[in-house]
Amino acid sequence: MTSARGPRLELAVGAFLLLALASLLVLAIASTNGQFGFSRGGTYDLTARFSNLGQLRPNAPVKVGGVTIGRVTGIDLDPVRFDSIVSMKIEDRFNEIPADTSAAILTGGLLGESYIGLSVGGDLEVLQPGEEIAFTSPAVDLMQMVGKYMFGGGGEGADAATPAAPGAGTASPDASPSDEGVLP
C-alpha cells in the first residue's frame, strides 16, 4: 500500500536540491567575477612597490578609468627595503601602457574592495612585460586618519599653527562702534 505522497515528496526534495546547486553555481561565478583562473586572451606581468597595501588582496582588479584591465596575482615583501611588491597580470590587448604611468591603491566606496588604479602618463615609451611601475601611491588608511584627527586634536599644533587674523576680536582705539566688525 504505497501512497501517492511518496513520489511527490521525492520530486519536491529533488527540485529543492537542484535549486540549491544552481544557487551555489551562481554564487561561485559571482564571487570570481566570471573568471576561473583562465583569461580570454594572453596576459603579461607588471610589478609595483607600495609602502602600504591597506586591504589589497590577490585577485583584486587593476583598473584604468574604472575599466578592469588585469588582476593582482601576488603580494610579497622585499626583505631589503621592506616594501610590498605587488605582481599583476595585464591583458595583452592593453600592451601600450606608457612608462610614466602611476599606480595607486584605491577603494571602491567607503567600505568597498581595494583595487589598483592606474593613471596613464604621456610617455612615448611603454611598459614592457616584467617591468616595474615606478610611480606609486600607497593606500590611505581611513581609520588611522580619523583616529589622528579625533584623538590628536586635529593634527600637530593645529591651534598654534593657525594665527588669528590681524585685529580679530579687538577694536582699534580710534574705531567708532559702527566700525566694529568691518575690515579696512
TrEMBL record:
Residues 43-120 form the Mce/MlaD domain. Pfam families: MlaD. InterPro entries: ABC_MlaD, Mce/MlaD, MlaD_Phospholipid_Transporter. Residues 158-184 have a biased composition (Low complexity). Residues 157-184 are annotated as: Disordered. PANTHER family: INTERMEMBRANE PHOSPHOLIPID TRANSPORT SYSTEM BINDING PROTEIN MLAD, INTERMEMBRANE PHOSPHOLIPID TRANSPORT SYSTEM BINDING PROTEIN MLAD-RELATED. NCBIfam families: OM_asym_MlaD (TIGR04430). This is Outer membrane lipid asymmetry maintenance protein MlaD. It comes from Luteimonas flava. The lineage of its organism: Bacteria, Pseudomonadati, Pseudomonadota, Gammaproteobacteria, Lysobacterales. The gene is mlaD.
